[in-house]
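Shipment paperwork, digital attachment
Item: protein structure file
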Amino acid sequence: HPPALPSITFPMGDTMASSDPRTLNPGTLASCLPSSCRSCCSCYYAQTDLYNKESLFERPANFPGWDVIESSFEAPKTYDPPQLKPGYVQCPCINWLAHRSPLCARPACPCCCVAYGYCWQPGGYYVDLLEPDDWFIKMLTTGTSSNFPSELLKGIYWMEGNLSGEVLTTFHDANWTTPSLGLKLWWFNWATDYSLLGCAMKHYLASAPWSLAARLEVSPNQKWVMISVLDARNKADGGNTMWMYAPQEGDKF
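Attachment content:
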């Protein structure tokens, strides 16, 4: 298969690279606009002041408490995601959801829609997963919060089995107010597919009206990470409140 070409936007924090990040090649610039447009056009592009918006740090509605979660949640033992089962995908006769969907992307006609869409996202890059060294380093050496729980969440995370148009992300660039609570802005260090869905997601998450941020909270025993988005603080459900489990010594899957 040809390599996927996700679009990546890097945070605007201080770099902490051991090598000079200015010599790295993060990929091919996707946008026809200068990166400064993101801060200038605040009516359209979401801004980094969301890192300090107090309401985004609120817990999901009806959260029972970590004592209940830690005593009742069980680690998943079988990899059996529902989205990979027959019948889950709507309109399966159209190849619109696959990571390499040709819909509105070359060579399918109209072939310019995806490229045109990414052109209006300042700071984005086209990258090749077959040549990741430079841009992986670039992702990993952007600004890191002093409270970041590095032993638990360091590195680049691959969204295996995800049907949405997203591929890779990191957590070190979130605003960690404590080692157990952070806020991640999804338009930074977040790779989307070179597809119509991936492009639409990038615009949706990075626009000022939506400005999606993910609230991250680590359980006291560091086995669970709760990720809540959108209106979870008003009504929590499976679409806006998700969970990560950290494999423990002795776990078998």
